[in-house]
Amino acid sequence: MTKRTVLCWCLVAAFLLAGGPAAVVRAQGGATRAAVPRDSGGPDLAPAIEVEAPAPDPAGNVAASSAVSDGGGSSGLMAVMGVTLIIWLGLFLYVFGLDRKVRRLEGP
Amino acid sequence: MSDPVRQRRLWYVIGGVAIAGFVAFGATSFRKNITPYVGFEQAKEARATRVQVAGELVQGSARYVEASRQLEFLMKDPEGRTMLVRYHGPKPGNFEEAKQVVAVGSYGDGAFEAGQLLVKCPSKYQGLETTPSS
Amino acid sequence: MTRRDILLGALFLWMAAVIWAAFLWAPAAAGFLGQSSRIVFFHVPTAWVATLSFLVSFIASVQYLRTRDPRWDVRAHASASLGIVFTILATVTGSIFARIMWGSYWNWDPRETSITFLLLIYAAYFALRGAVPDPERKAALAAVYAILAFVTVPFLVFVVPRIYWSLHPDTIINTKGRITMDSRMFRVFMASLAGFTGLAAWLYDLECRIEALRRKAEEEIL
């Protein structure tokens, strides 16, 4: 457990924590970019809405659900969130383990 | 140099001079070198050199020729001068929303020939439901 | 279960809640492609933590020169390391966002240029540390350098984005000093700032303690 390994791991983990979501958001944004010129995803007004996506309203995109408009939508967001949470859990457990070890080495 | 107080004072002097130097450096040389975007005149002078030109997209001037996959539009600089830009490639997805664009390419043949088009959308950290859709 | 464990548990839950809210509670913002605006909850806090770390490194360096206490050197080094890690993160996430929003991973936009300067300036700090073998000399030189390096930070992080035209979305606190952000987004954003700051504080503390242990072990060997 040298300082270098800690730093390396923090770098990788923190990268994933911040870069993971970005990468998936990128995929979604990329799809929108290529296929749908005039749309910027739907608003997730509240998580409750995603259960039953309302019919897209052609007049305004007030109620346009992201599931319809950008190929990933709420389920996509859910997946990204899940991945990010798992990464955060991994990072936390690892650093917490280190924390414990340091406290043990420092003695009483 | 054995006297720690004198040594420290020396470091303070060196530090002060260096800080002043950094500030001067930051205030002067960065000014021009930090931005890659050049004005229309400079782009025309640069000729074959690849440059990045930023400007306002003249609303309604865009014309897309499907056959040759060419996008033509007018760009306006802060002084109000306009320049014709010919872009070769697929239209960026958010081009319709763009207010300002950056064209990457070189000037020639009466127009700026862009190989790459970067767009800046008027993004706001506001929920979609609050903005009127056009 | 010590108090520290409880605090760390709270940090874990806090960040988990932030992650949930960032993706499912906050709305997507207008003018951004797809869901890409959500990166603001991750990209800006990394940049914030980086700036904060450089500030801590600056303060610790000043303290080292005043007191010559090696513990300040440890702190300066630890926070500079954290600073550069989070700067790299901000660069990578920013580059990905640039690809989505304006269509190029890297085009030397003023924002991209200024963060490159920042990375190079702090990379030199570590090069300097590596080049001087004598610990006291290393600490003193590094401290002087860290102070000089920090002089550029306000300029590169706060001034450049506000005076140069850039493809980068407007800063959260705009030039008029007003915050224009949807209230849900703003709450998630602030919570994320707090969470990232907590995470950085934890990593910083751990880094300092590990370094202290390492130095102690080295002394025992010698």
> Quick one: biggest sheet of chain B?
5 strands, mixed, barrel
- Give unreliable regions of chain C as ranges: none
Corresponding CATH superfamily of the largest domain in chain B: Nucleic acid-binding proteins
Q: Please tell me how large the radius of gyration of chain B is.
A: 23 Å
By secondary-structure content and strand pairing, the structural class of chain C works out as mainly alpha
**Structural category of chain B:** alpha+beta
Shape by Cα distribution of chain B: elongated
Give the N-to-C terminal Cα separation of chain C: 36 Å
Residue runs with pLDDT of under 50 for 5 or more positions of chain B: 130-134
- Overall number of domains of chain C: 1
Question: Biggest sheet of chain C, in brief?
Answer: none
Radius of gyration of chain C: 19 Å
**What is the approximate shape of chain C?**
globular
Strand residue content of chain B: 25-35%
Q: Report the β-strand fraction of chain C as a percent range.
A: under 5%
Fraction of residues in H or I helices of chain C: over 70%
Distance between the termini of chain B: 73 Å
Q: What is the CATH architecture descriptor of the largest domain in chain B?
A: Beta Barrel
Number of helices of chain C: 6
Number of strands of chain C: 0
H/E topology pattern of chain B: HEHEEEEEE
Show the helix and strand layout.
The complex is a heterotrimer of chains A (108), B (134) and C (222).
Chain A: H1 3-35, H2 66-69, H3 73-106
Helix pairs in contact in A: 1-3
Chain B: H1 4-33, E1 37-38, H2 40-46, E2 51-57, E3 63-65, E4 70-76, E5 82-88, E6 100-108, E7 111-120
Chain C: H1 3-25, H2 40-67, H3 70-101, H4 110-131, H5 135-163, H6 183-221
